[in-house]
Design brief:
The chain is of the alpha/beta class and 258 residues long. The chain has 2 domains: 61 residues, no CATH class; 183 residues, Vaccinia Virus protein VP39 (Rossmann fold, 3-Layer(aba) Sandwich), CATH 3.40.50.150. Helix content is 43%, strand content 19%. Strands 6-2-1-7-8-10-9 form a 7-stranded mixed sheet. A 3-stranded antiparallel sheet has the order 3-5-4. It binds S-adenosylmethionine. S-adenosylmethionine (SAM) binds next to loops.
Length: 258
């Protein structure tokens, strides 16, 4: 079986749009998982995916890279705090924020902390956080992190919103937790809700093919309000934002013009 044949079969079996991901990355991840489980070839790997639920779950877990941390790329979060959020709250009675591919929740919770620090009332905003990986969503909902995830959290904020709970474990404050609603969603397949003032999708575009990225940019832009902001990861760029009706405003922030 060739890798392309394997990829097509797995896409159907797991109901995943593997075509949108960069092929060499998918291939590397599959072979490293096969080595770990001592699976001989692609045929055996596919058979095991069909028969062994634990292997199937491992495959999905291994395929989705969940690296995340609070205030990842602090300069971008400063721009969010000092420019983007104040403007959004000035211009809108209610601000709707979507963290797409949110991983363990550190990203949407970072935004909730910033808004709380701004003194904005909870009924003036909504934060939805989605991911394809059900295991990481369970972790996100618990809101317990290790010190690695908190490396970029300022001391004053860490003291205020995190309580030590066991060795190298820190529990996030309930008031922040309840500001974020988590849901399962595959960004490559499912329909998007419209009317978001801010869409945050960071460190997910890097895994996609050019076509996959363009499609997602188009669909995000359609889901934004006008004006509205798209916030990407620090190494992710939209080369011709004008094509999508977007304008780069700073680093990885793009505005849908009204
Ligand atoms: C590297 S993490 C990024 C986390 C966070 N946004 C950040 O920048 O710190 C990428 C996330 O994308 C999720 N993911 C992968 N494929 C996805 C898909 N098709 N739909 C939604 N989420 C997906 C993974 O489960 C993972 O949690």
């Amino acid at each position: 079986m060739t890798f392309l044949e394997f990829k097509d079969l797995v896409s159907k079996e797991l109901d995943l749009r593997l075509d949108a991901y960069k092929l060499n990355r998918v291939e590397r991840r599959v072979y490293s998982l096969m080595r770990r489980y001592q699976v001989e070839d692609l045929g055996d790997c596919f058979q095991r995916l069909q028969e062994d639920q634990a292997f199937k779950e491992s495959f999905i877990k291994h395929f989705t890279i969940n690296t995340s941390e609070f205030f990842r790329n602090p300069t971008s979060f400063k721009f969010l705090e000092n420019v983007v959020l104040p403007k959004l709250f000035q211009e809108n009675e209610k601000v709707r924020i979507w963290s797409a591919a949110c991983s363990n929740g550190s990203e949407p919770y970072s935004v909730a902390i910033l808004i709380k620090e701004m003194g904005v009332s909870p009924d003036r905003y909504e934060i939805l956080a989605t991911d394809i990986d059900p295991f990481i969503l369970d972790i996100a909902k618990k809101g317990v992190y290790n010190s690695q995830a908190l490396l970029r959290v300022e001391d004053k904020i860490a003291k205020k919103y995190f309580k030590p709970s066991g060795e190298d474990r820190f529990q996030l404050d309930e008031k922040i937790k309840k500001q974020v609603r988590f849901a399962h969603q595959d960004l490559l397949k499912e329909k998007f809700e419209k009317g978001w003032n801010l869409i945050i999708c960071r460190n997910f575009f890097i895994y996609l093919t050019r076509e996959g990225k363009d499609n997602l940019t188009r669909r995000f832009t359609q889901s934004l309000t006008s004006p509205g902001i798209l916030f990407l990861g620090n190494t992710e760029f939209i080369f011709e934002p004008g094509i999508f009706g977007l304008k780069k405003i700073n680093g990885s922030f793009y505005e849908k013009s009204s």
